[in-house]
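>> received
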Amino acid sequence: MNRQLTALFAAFEALLVIAIGIGIPLVPLTILWGAQYGFAVDWTAFWRASVDLWLVGHGVDITLVLDPATAAGLGIPDAGAPVTLTIAALGFALLTVVLGVRAGRRLAETRHRALGELASLGAFGLASFAVTFTSRHPDASPSLWQGTVLPTAVFAIGLVIGVRRTQAGQDAAPGSFRDPTRDWRPDARATLVAALRGGAAAAAGIITLASLATAALIVASYAKVISLYESLHSELLGGIAVTLGQIALLPNIVIWTASWLVGPGFALGTGSSVSPLGTQLGPVPAIPILGALPPGQLAFGFVGLLVPVVAGFLVGAILGPALRREAGGALLVAAGLGVGLVGGVILGLLAWFSAGAAGPGRLADVGPNPWAVGVAAAIELGVAATIGLLTTVRRAKASR
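>> returned
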């Protein structure tokens, strides 16, 4: 494949990712436009809504100006006051990363990989700017620079992952990055690698258990979720739109559940709290999936706090035998604390990505506190991983 074809192929891959992301909300909204409104209203309103949803999914801030009727229904005295929506529906970002990985794998198989990467990112950035520009409206105005940069950055993450994973199964390409730790002492290098791998594994384990807990809560609260659906009176197409919106928010909810397991929990409005010690909520949006929230005090809520402790201990116990051959003593403790630091940073960043302002008034504070989640996870994982690492040393001495 020559250079021109590679560039065109890469640009097409990038445009396809954007088309899929915007098309997911646009298709049902277009059907709604024809079936319920009989093509009588301006279709561009549905286009802007779809683009806004896609942009929100990548963390782009959108400034809303509510009309008097909507403001009165929400109890907002100043109808013309702008409201900035900052929460990210991470389902769209996750989709962009997955599609970016696919695009990266395909580009890695071409002869002109670097050109393909530049063409793909350039096309994605230009298209993101274009769709953001077309969606700007006095009633809902996304940030133009964020709409250009943030989706492109998310796509770049997936693209790089796809390229690197494909290259990992091939011979190292000329010009590949040199390992900066190649000249380190073996024990120091092993300690760093254990901290990075262990922290990532512990954070992944907590997120996995949070996913299972979220699914279990939804199943257990099925009747309440269905009753909330019925109370919306949204009919079939409206129900599909609500469901798509909840799917887009599902990664956020999983991260909130992980924050609950770590301890600090999360908020669904200023002054509210959902944590292992109990749930204190004021008025919340009538979103069906929120019917799975645990009500009141939980008799055994503290059991959830064992999840990060067990995850950290297991990571330390698994890494211990291999690490003990390369490092010992203080370096084992350093590796355990490093596991906590890396895991805390990962979970804190995820909490930061999942939180933000979801509306006016109380809804300006939704999601977990990233600092609280990060610090709590670092302490729990660090202590537990250190104990797990040192336990393997004691077992090795006892077996001699």
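>> The radius of gyration is 24 Å.
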